[in-house]
Amino acid sequence: MEIDDGVKERLKNGHEFDTIFTRKESVRFYAYAPEPSWKFPTYFFQQTTPITSSFFLSFSFLSLSTAMSGGASPYRRYKNDVEFGGAGSGGFEDDESPSDPFDIVSTKSASVDRLRRWRQAALVLNASRRFRYTLDLKKEEEKKQIIAKIRTHAQVIRAAYLFQAAGAQPNGTEKVPPSPIPTGDYSISPDQLASMTRDHDFSALRNYEGVNGLSEKLKTNPDKGIHDDESNILERKTVFGSNTYPRKKGRSFWRFVLDACRDTTLIILMVAAAASLALGIKTEGIKEGWYDGGSIAMAVIIVIVVTAVSDYKQSLQFQNLNEEKQNIHLEVVRGGRRVEISIFDIVVGDVIPLKIGDQVPADGILISGHSLAIDESSMTGESKIVHKDQKAPFLMSGCKVADGYGTMLVTSVGINTEWGLLMASISEDNGEETPLQVRLNGVATFIGIVGLSVAILVLVVLLIRYFTGHTKDSGDTGRFIAGKTSPGDAVDGAIKIFTVAVTIVVVAVPEGLPLAVTLTLAYSMRKMMADKALVRRLSACETMGSATTICSDKTGTLTLNMMTVVEAYICGKKIDPPNNKSGLPSRLISLLIESVAQNTTGSVFLPEGGGNVEVSGSPTEKAILQWGVNLGMNFDVVRSESTIVHAFPFNSEKKRGGVAVKLSDSEIHIHWKGAAEIVLAACTSYMDTNETLVPLDNDKMEYFKNAIETMAAGSLRCVAIAYRTMKGETFPTTEEELEYWKMPEDDLVLLAIVGLKDPCRPNVKDAVQLCKKAGVKVRMVTGDNLQTARAIALECGILESNADAKEPNLIEGKTFRGLSEDRRLEVADKISVMGRSSPNDKLLLVQALRKNGHVVAVTGDGTNDAPALHEADIGLAMGIQGTEVAKESSDIIILDDNFASVVKVVRWGRSVYANIQKFIQFQLTVNVAALVINVVAAVSSGDVPLNAVQLLWVNLIMDTLGALALATEPPTDHLMDRTPVGRREPLITNIMWRNLLIQAMYQVTVLLVLNFDGKRILNLEHGDNKQAIKKKNTLIFNAFVFSQIFNEFNARKPDEMNVFKGVTKNRLFVGIVSFTIVLQVIIIMFLGKFTTTVRLSWQLWLVSIVIGLISWPLAVVGKLIPVSKRPFSEYFYDIYASCKRCLLSRNRGSPRGNVDDT
């Protein structure tokens, strides 16, 4: 049958097929991703299949599902999912002021339009530098297009696979499977492996004799993996490639130099310097005429080089941190032993265990699995979860395990996988702005506008005075005399005036202010790594300083995560010690060992040469497996005696997991393990010492419940193990029936109840107390029994006493879940401990707290914690026990799973904010003083005491060096004595206003007195007037610089008397201050020609130092002046509002008052 043009068009539009042509009764299509600029390799996939109704049905369904999903992962659908607690975050960001483009409380979920608005509103001199560490909106769009192209390719392959299956007819043409091509010592080539997994080529897999045949060709074992020796691994990397992809090289140092050169004002200064140089050489000759222009050019070059060096070092820090983020650690089976390696060390032939929440680290084939479901949205863009079994065994790198568990054989790594191609194309970090950075751009814009206005005023005043003859030279005659002054001299004078005005703009516009955030964040992130915290999102680092509450897990965060079985109830009685099997029937021990060995995701390895048993898995699994080993379990033997035919992986909603195993005599055993009270409720009998099944009457049920409560009150985690048998005739006989079969959960036989001890971390109580002192409430949210949670909370100090351990302080998840929304909001603030909580309960709590105005930090480790981690202001994933899904949803990864590390993150968050405030205070003091001094001098005398080169040096001290010195202050304990920083708290506090105004007024007063009366004060009236002015201006310049150096110490401690506390611990601060002093001495003593200064006597050096030194006692006196707690900005707003009301009332009283009341 022929396909009409309309159908061709539909096919072409569906997945952008480049060529579609037909022949009788079949359609042949070619699909490939177009080759863009980044050299994406062209892949062809050719498939011939008969056209049937199911052909089009498959195609239509695939296109429709993709269109509806929008490429979203199921893990992110919770925002509009009622099951996950309603729509989104409840409008927490809606309170952002739409009128102020710089008011973005959270950049975590800010729209592109809001991000674009603040960029457009900012006053920027150097866009490439200012926006370097913000999200590149253009690149972000390009990245999305690249991902879409690669996803299209993956979808086309999957479509072809579906078409082939749907159109399987007797007259269809079967694809001829390829023959293996030997490569090196292996009988199959990397290209064949890549083609098979990429194209989901089942016929090729069959041709290679399935997983076992493929394992032989790759010289590996499906059970024991490859041999763990360096030469074998190196050989595999040589033949099949390594699990890495080509990374885009970071920017070179010269790119940063180029970026620094793009500053508008510096470009203008260079042009002015060139003009001044040309005029100087023309009028005065090359020997003397090059100084004016040359000195400005050299000053600009120094500014560019210092800026570039600072930015380059900063970029290297971010580069290292980005590499650390991508370095996932996971378990592989090598030589029969599970070992932890980096994702970059995986090789073809590796056998990898997969469990819920893991990332598939390479392309591969499923060896075995139970209820294994994969979220392929990262590759295909579809939100549909794909179930994997022997019929659909192909696994794609970069996808996430959504449910179940299994093992895979790695067939392709690195650039031979679709994920590798995707990462190679988008590996460059695309930046991210933070709320503080956006707010500082607003501050910089405001200051810049003021500075620009002042510079224009100075320019106009100086030009008017100059061309009207009011600007005098040292001989008290006008510098410009109409008709007498040559055009060259006039232009030269005008250029000098213009240069001063432009330099004022350089000083006035605090270009480095927003970049100081990036500087302090880069420093903080590097130091936080040492404190076991890996920052994934820059904004989280500063948001943590505003956290008002921390919702923490119990296991592994507040406790050590080192579980051991310390109590056991078997045969209706307590067994002491728990591994004492004397007196226990052999039948019960056999069933217990079978349950422990089969119903687990862990493993036990016994070295062949003898030695200690190695147990791996989660802490709970390891404890129970170790208990089984103590009871005499031989893990491998027990697992070989029966086969798992169905599995229900542990579910945090149901709090239990189970397996169905088939014994050699075809008998079916159903084993369940989970939360003690939940499993106990499903039991109807228990086995006594005579191997008799005894019904669980009320008395015995009460006995076990009391045992659970007693163990829980002793802070033990209680786990029950139960089983039941099934008749063969009621068990599914086909794979299709088994897939939809539900394992029986009732009529169970209780085998054992065990209590697992997980001690509290030694320093956790101190950490909790520190949080309380800092105004941060710690809440425990755990899936454990309420009594266990209560005991641990009392031990950790979350609950002060037994009197606190009652509702609503202590609440169960289902109780909280059952409350109305209004009641939940009311109760949420009071909750200290939530037990038996599901991930949905945690999400509801986070939403309620955020609606109540809290800034919420949440810890999580499981896949189901992802919605809560994403919803929280700061999501903290656990580095050891956390799944990859949880880590990807988080903002910060706690590498040691320790709550004390969470508290350190709070300290660092507050430190970021405090350091920025120190830098703002320092920079504004310099800005105010420099502007006022130059404006007053220009308006009054027509000359400025601080020339262009001197102002550039001041700008360097204030901007780059000042930021380095103050933005890298380490956190102090004093930070934890304050309450959390409000997210809309003014950046410039009343204390800062007081400090900077006192210092600026002092500097302005002293230096203006020197400017206007300096010659008399310094007794220079009787000497050469030109030399006297130079000496006076040099003293002003020197005193001004020393004032900033001494004030830098004041800025370290805005609200403390002792500004020297801890100064020796910050070597960078000491180094920069020392470097500044040395350079200032060199400038005054040896570079007078360039800076228009003269050498000063030791007396004038002393005067300069004393002027600067006075700022210290002045700061102490200033700190004694009390300030209002109400921000100054509110007073100005009140004045503005009252003026507005007066105008409105006046307008209403006038005949035209109704025209416009706005």
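Above is the first protein from milestone M3; the second protein from the same milestone is given next.
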Amino acid sequence: MSSKGGGTALTRRNYRLASDMDKPRSTGIVNEKLLSDYLHHVFPSTKQGPTLASLRKPLGFQDLPAHLEKLLSEDTPTEDGQAVDGRLGPQPVVLDHTSGFEGLLFVDDDLLGVIGHSNFSSIRATTCVYKGKWAYEVLISSQGLMQIGWCTLSCRFNQEEGVGDTPDSYAYDGNRVRKWNVTTTNYGKVSVNTDRVLCVLRNGQSLGTAFTNIKMGPGIAYFPAISLSFKESVAFNFGSRPLRYPSQLINPPAADLMKAHKLLGYIKNVLSTAIDTQEGLVEKDCAVWRLHGEPTVLVTLAHIFNHFAPLMCKVYLVEDVLMNFLLGILEGGGSVDEHPLIQQLLDLFWLLMEDHEVNECLKQLMMSLLRAYRFSPIIPDLGFQIHYLRLTTAILRHEKSRKYLLSNLTFDVLRSVVFFYIKTPLRVKEAGLEELIPTTWWPTHFDKEGKDELEPKDESADERLRRRAYERGCQRLKKRIEVVEELQVQILRLLLNNKDKSTGEASRYIFLNKFRKFLQENASNRGHPTALCPPEYMVCFLHRLITAVRGCWDEGHRKSLSRAYVPPQLFYNGKVDYFDLQRLGGLLSHLKKTLKDDLASKANIIIDPAEIQATSMDDLDEDDESGAAQRLPGAVAMGGALARPSWLSSPTLGRANRFLSTAAVSLMTPRRPLSQPEKVKVRTLAVEQRTEEDIEGSYGNDGLLLGRPLEEPDQPNADKSLLEIVDGIVMMYNLSVHQQLGKMVVVSDDVHEYAVALKDTEEKIARCPARRADILEELQKSQKVFAEKLNHLSRRLAWINATIYSKEKMLDIYWLLCVCIRTIEHADNTGSLFAFTPEFYLNVAMNAYSALKNYFSPANGMDELPGVFECISDLLSLLSDIKDSLMQALASYVCYPQSLRAVERIPEEQRVAMMKNLLAPYEQRPWAQTNWILVRLWRGCGFGYRYTRLPHLLKTKPEDANLPSLQKPCPSLLLQRHMAELLSMDKDMAASFLNSVLNQLNWAFSEFIGMIQEIQQAAERPERNFVDTRQLKVCATCFDLSVSLLRVLEMTVTLVPEIFLDWSRPSAELLLRRLAQLLNQVLNRVTAEKNLFDRVVNLRLPGLESVDHYPILVAVTGILVRILVDGDRQGFSFCPQPTSEEDLCPICYAHPISAIFKPCSHKSCKACINQHLMNNKDCFFCKATITGVEDYSKPASS
């Protein structure tokens, strides 16, 4: 802003107001006297002088610049512009993120905030000091291990040693209340979340002298520095922002600060004064002020902003002056809509400030709000968070400001979407939870396996009262958190506005492209944790975004939100970038080549040849060899049946076979001739290249829905932009949300563990003899510790349940599950184009169900979700022939009774097809998961197989009680019947399946025996070498596989005994023989007293807890019992008939001689020679080549 001479010709946006020099003495705006009174009222002098209006010098616009300069210079302190002695380095001071750090750290965009991402990370500032008194402020937002202080350039830190651990560094640790300089001593007070610690080189006024005799001299200078452990978070203030606790050692910019406050006072005077030509100056409430374009008011404000605008580019002044002023406007309460003054002020900013000035001002204002929200202390009513969110909402209601912030700040500088996060207090006192939830409660009734009983029958009246009081406290907390959540949703609804097109592109499309870029960064940097948005932020952001999308969906008056899905054309038309994420059919580049004819015939899409040519030479060679010969031209595809596309048999993309459903094969033949419109050439668009037309489309352009297959409806089920946001929500859940949901369950597990310990301690106190006062005292101390810990954890759990595991959050995850299933359903209808579906949709469908089952229950039961198990049935019906991917989904679903019933409700034809896939031979496939599914279908029916956990492990706490393997047995008799029918009717399939099971059992048990031999040898060495943890884990896995394979054999023997006992079957005798040999091997290795197995079990090594006699012996016993029982029913007996030794087979000594070899005439039983001839043609005895085998019967004795 500039002024010319003494006039007031001010240029802003081609806006010009004439000065008094260009007009007669009558101003043309208001009369001279009224204008003078108005200007004196707006710009009152602070000097003592005449107060009567008649004695004041008239003031007009021509005199205003000089008058304003005079007022601003009054009482303004002078600032020394010379460099301060005692410091070296740039100004402003920030953290040195280029070379001054050790370990993994996440540094905020302002280079002042830092989060640790490794064991013990260190970082220093860019400026050092060597004499004088210096201080800086640190805002602590976590309560773990951190050492804050000073270090020299010569200090070398690592993952074990940080600030204070070297001779030339000094640190304070508020968590452990100690000071560090190589050695450590007690010092200070405990620091808590949101504390600010003043680090002073010589001493701290509040904590006393920290260190004396500090090393000083030439070449020695000290940098502010910090070392912090994983996930610890702080923010530094080196004086660029207002201090929470002002210090004489840090001087604020006093001159600029005073000017800014004066100018803000002048603006307030303008807002609270109205000019009435009849009544003169009228005082009014500034809250109702409107920008009506009065020339006098605008020219007055223009003079003020000529000085005010440059000051608002400085972060200190924005935070101390402007932000506090705007927050004061909202202090009166009420909705944000009731305070339009902020919108009017933002209009003034855009009118009277240059672009670069208002841009910098808005940027610093939002950064200050973000910082304040992130580090604000948690109080019972969440007042600080609500205050900052209300102001953020008010600013974003201004259309032009919102679009600037969306385009230039959101998801660029604010990558961590902090505004949508509600942090969990680590200490309940800081959040006031003791007042909000005065009564605590935790489960005190457990079932036989140690799990909480949902509805204890013998709950006492006192327990019931405590539980209800606790629940009421939880409800109070939830209502307060919901206020914050609603403000966060309002912010997202503003960002999703698609009606504000008057000033350019609508907010929603700017947000959509930024959101997609945000997802790309997180998907591409999953191996680099410092580049990722923290998962705890992602969880909150996902729930707020789902709520906001639902609101926008309802406003569109489209189809029911419960039937929401993502149309399949988004996956192949190139309008949405999936950042090279895996598709169900393999890599996108390969699918574009091999399915380009299907895209042309079914979706009227032609892939840009430039994209196909850009693929690697390996892919091109593969296409020439395996695909070109099989792919039919488009003209041929229009008539007759389609050949099997090359992507189904590609040698390098065998993954595609896993995902081919029966429906896909049947749909590859067109149902009716296609009336083809003109085909459209497409290529993948980068996020930055897209426009609103690319998303929503225009006349003759379907936008995101380009390439609609005939199976899809003409009208989309929502705005096209919302469909892409829903797609992004699914991707976000897959990136990190599901993993974080699982991590937060640990608090509930801790409550359960301490509750069990407390109950056990109370029972011991009740049994303790009165004469053992010493034991009683120790038990009472333990009881007190457990009770205090439970009081803390129960209140913290209430917070977590309200913010993460509430019923509303559960419904969000359920909605996400339905979206994935409906999307897969519609994609499956497209036939071979189903291969373009991103793989994460199937992952989210499985993980969302797992989360609903394991993380939200029992607080919010799945039974309350409408149609959840019908959705699972639909998914399994679609994927009944997708082999390996189905195994993963099925393995999750068969562990729980409700989802297993959903599996049983799919059509019988698909159930049988699914079981047939499970019974395929184990060779050349990942068989362990298939075997696991069969075991779960049987568990609860086998001999000694009704346990959830192994009996010898019941007293130990599992690592994760929600694991599928630790769920109660829920066998499926229906699927067992299908298995029995298939094995009984198809003799070849039964033989191949059982042979593969026996082969894998032989391998698994042999590997297990070999490993325990190595473990035993290592344990017996005098040097006591430790066994590798990985080796122990592999050993336990081989044992578990052996047991599960034995259980599958038990299941088969029980359901279809004739496979082994009906010797009219060609393979029965051989299968029974192999089974008996393996069982004999197992028994020999396991049952011998003080043998290898026994010695390893008695070592009780960590990692081998599951290795025990019980699980494997009961499985073998179950097989033998069933063979004996069913053998008696069929007249089969293991008891040998009396015979002489000469008549027994010389190989096995178990059967009579029944075969003679040609030409050597040696003899054995048929079983031995048949098994031998499968691998060898030489005689057992003479090594002659056997040319034939004939039946042999002993001649009758004379």
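Note on the second protein: Residues 1-28, 616-677 have pLDDT under 50 and may be disordered.
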